Amino acid sequence: MKKIPKEVIEEVEKLREEIEYHNYRYYVLADPVISDEEYDKLMKRLIQLEKKYPELVTPDSPTQRVGGKVLEGFKKVKHSTPMLSLDNTYDENEIREFDERIKKGLAGENVEYVSELKIDGISIALRYENGRFRMAITRGDGTEGEDVSENVKLIRSVPLRLRKPLTLEVRGEIYMPVEEFKRINEEREEQGLPAFANPRNATAGTIRQLDTSVVAKRNLDTFIYYLVNPQAYGIETQWEALQFLKEIGFKINPHSKLCKSIDEVIDYWRVWTDERHKLDYWVDGVVVKVNSFRQQERLGTTAKSPRWAIAFKFPAEQVRTKLLDVTFQVGRTGVITPVAELEPVQLSGTTIKRASLHNFDYIKEKDIRIGDWVFVEKAGGIIPQVVKVITELRDGSEREIKPPEKCPVCRGPVGKLDPSEVAIRCLNPHCPAKLKKALETFVSRDAMNIDGMGEKLIERMVDSGIVKDIADIYYLTPFDFAQLGSGIGQRTIAKLLKEIEESKKRPLEKLIAGLGIPHVGTKMAKILAENFESLEDLANASLERLMEIEGIGEEVAKSIIEYFRNEKTREIIGKLKKAGVNMKSSIVKGKALRGLKFVVTGELDRWSRKEIEEFIESLGGKVSSSVSKKTDYAIVGRNPGSKYQKAQKLGVRILNEDEFIELVKERAKETGEKVEFPEKKGPMTLF
Ligand code: IVH
Fold first, then answer.
1. Does the beta carbon of 509 lie inside 6 Å of ligand 1?
2. Is residue 73 assigned to a domain?
3. 309 lines ligand 1 (CB under 6 A)
4. Is 287 near ligand 1, meaning CB less than 6 Å away?
5. Of the candidates 69, 71, 70, 23, the residue with the CA atom closest to the CA atom of residue 46
6. 2 falls in which pLDDT band (50, 70, 90)?
7. Are 444 and 473 in contact (CB under 8 A)?
8. Which atom of ligand 1 lies closest to the CA of 116?
9. Where are the alpha helices (DSSP H) in 248-292?
10. Is residue 456 pLDDT above 90, yes or no?
11. Average pLDDT, stretch 377-388?
């Protein structure tokens, strides 16, 4: 093992402390003192050192907040003390009764309350040892939860190190900010997945993800509001506990209020009933807590909930209106979303005329019909949605909502990309509704990399009609750009045209990636470019030929066939070719062994295993590690393993090295290829 210099250990330690401090400034205090660039620089340096000295990596290092692990499951863990839930009420009178009960329980003593917002997320317990993050546990059934540490570690506002070396447990809420909720749902709708009903479901779904990279991409956040065993730290009240939590590194909600009387609590609730939509997270009420811990103890708990606290919920915001009609919107990936056209109605300060119906499964499940009286609610205070039908008010004139048979924009065919999808889509890859997105993909860095052609310019080009498909990019003239009006100067135009010209030379895999064939991303595009000589070759491929290629399954193969079958696709390819866009592959593999499966066993004289495997693959053949009926040839060297016997048993053709060379030569003659056998390199490896 390398000896780690003392200076490195010290630097790593210092970097971690600094990064954790800046996290605290940014995520907890919302008051950063360095720029993002400076922060990134610290992080980069730490990553660099940990890469060089992996022994120094600890689970609480800030570099561990990246995700990428795939978990097998979540371990069950007992809670240190039960995680209780709260009694709740919607009613002012019941709140006054709560206050009376408390006063009676405390023999008329003076009581202060802390009013906190009730965050609509999921509760979590966080354990720390000597100031280091150890474990995060979900509520579960209150006595036993699940260890979701790996996922919770990815939430930036959860400190991995406290600002004091304490051993303690805190509890609070993990939530998903409304913007994030909207972003994820839009993404899901575009992918044809069912949308999350509310941020809490989205949070719960995220925290129980086994793929931690999904969690890392979703910006969850926290508010901590509970310290287990506060008296151990000399803390007497909930109000002090909140300040203490903030001091040692936790994010607390800034809107909590210390109230001297129940009237103040009710005022707080009234204010937030109106103001809740201004927050960037969901709250569903106010939690009222007796401030003094000594008084809390005297009041005690029932089996389910503490007597010293209550949830004072906000009234649900719903209105009744009539569903006049249903229209369809086509999204950028072709997903068709049904939209309710409503009789205009006021809902928490705005007039609502339209509401989301999500998808056709949702309509069916709720049995929503045109002409129905419905309840409309604002999800997250923003997006109105139809939540319920008042079936009692039906008079028989209501009409069923049928999915459109053709795309409402291009009249193209509609359907599901695969049967498990909820959404139906416009299947025409060239539907104008999808054009902007298609152009964005085409010009993106992973595809034709046309610098300077951003979202805004694309929007203007499409809206003005100068670009009607992706190939039109190559026919743009300075005049076309000038027509787009202000903001585009001569120099920009010249630069853009130069970029466009240069992009014609991009390798075939970039072009394929840019076409936006469903299910074909950059990786798949590379596989295709390795297996087809040109775009035409790919366009004419049969389903069988596509499916023979390692890494291409039926779904992808079908999608490719479907794409190239489209007449508009053919037209676009013709236009691209005429414009001089490169269509030849520079990484295509040989054909000599195409479609053949090999297994290699024993020691070879000429090559190492890696060499022969790469050689076979470079000629389009496949190498697998085990023999099956599908194996075409077993190449057998000295001291072969059990694969040899199995090959014999299954009647697989057996070749020695010389016979293999003969086979290659023969097949190369047939395909007209010139094959160079690799030189033997280095010492022979045994296998
Ligand atoms: S205190 C024993 N404070 O509401 C006291 N809970 O049913 C436990 N919640 O499970 C909770 N915001 O997930 C408390 N400021 C807040 C809260 C809050 C949200 C959740 C929590 C709990 C549920 C109550």
1. no
2. no
3. yes
4. yes
5. 23
6. low
7. no
8. 15
9. 262-275
10. no
11. 76
Top mutation candidate among 83, 123, 265 for ligand 1, by most atoms within 8 Å of CB: 123
Same domain, 512 and 615: no
For residue 311, report the distance from its CA to the centre of ligand 1, in Å. Answer: 8
Query: 64 versus 379: which is more confidently predicted?
Result: 64
Token pair belonging to 84: 């209780």
Could you tell me the distance, in angstroms and rounded to a whole number, from the CA of residue 118 to the centre of ligand 1? Answer: 6
Of 553, 571, 588, which marks where a domain is finished? 588
Q: Ligand 1: which of 257, 287, 288 to mutate, most ligand atoms within 8 Å of CB?
A: 287
Instruction: Tell me how many degrees the CA angle 429-433-439 measures, rounded to the nearest 5.
Output: 70
Average pLDDT, the chain: 91
Give kind and range of the element (H or E) at residue 342.
strand 335-347
Residues 301 and 340 in one domain: no
- Residue 682: pLDDT band (50, 70, 90) is very low
For ligand 1, is residue 288 a contact (CB within 6 Å)? Answer: no
User: What average pLDDT does range 528-539 have in this prediction?
Assistant: 94
> Per-residue pLDDT for 497 more than 90?
yes
281 within ligand 1 shell (Cβ under 6 A): no
Distance 102 CA to ligand 1 centre (A): 19
How many other C-beta atoms can be found within 10 angstroms of the C-beta atom of residue 95?
Answer: 19
Instruction: Please say if the pLDDT value at position 199 is more than 90.
Output: no
At 394, which CATH number?
2.40.50.140
pLDDT tens column, 102-152: 999 999 899 999 999 999 999 999 999 999 999 999 999 999 999 999 999
pLDDT greater at residue 189 or residue 318 = 318
Q: Is the pLDDT of residue 171 over 90?
A: yes
Instruction: Report residue 681's pLDDT band, with 50, 70 and 90 as the boundaries.
Output: low
In tens, the pLDDT along 566-613 reads 888 999 999 999 999 999 998 888 888 988 999 999 999 888 888 899
- Ligand 1 atom at minimum distance from 309 CA: 5
Q: 228-269: per-residue pLDDT in tens? A: 999 999 999 999 999 999 999 999 999 999 999 999 999 999
CATH code of the domain in which 624 resides:
3.40.50.10190
CA of 475 to the centre of ligand 1 (A): 61
Confirm or reject: Cβ of 50 under 6 Å from ligand 1: no
From the CA of 138, how far away is ligand 1's center (Å)? 13
Whether 523 and 445 share a structural domain:
yes
Q: Are 197 and 243 in contact (CB under 8 A)?
A: no
Catalytic member of 118, 251, 313, 434:
118
Picking from 202, 129, 198, 133, the residue whose alpha carbon sits closest to that of residue 168 is 129
Does a structural domain hold residue 210? yes
Residue 123, ligand 1, Cβ within 6 A: yes
CA dihedral defined by 362, 367, 368, 371, rounded to 10 degrees? 170
CA 318 to ligand 1 centroid distance, Å: 24
Q: What angle do CA 256, 262, 263 make, to 5 degrees?
A: 95
Does the beta carbon of 118 lie inside 6 Å of ligand 1? yes
CA-nearest residue for atom 14, ligand 1, is 287
In the residue annotation, 118 being an active-site residue is answered as: yes
Ligand 1 centre to CA of 224 (Å) is 10
**How many domains would you assign to the chain?**
5
Burial 257-273 (b: 16+ CB within 10 A, else e): bebeebeebbebbeebb
Are the C-beta atoms of 310 and 87 separated by less than 8 Å? yes
- Higher pLDDT among residues 40 and 191, named by residue: 40
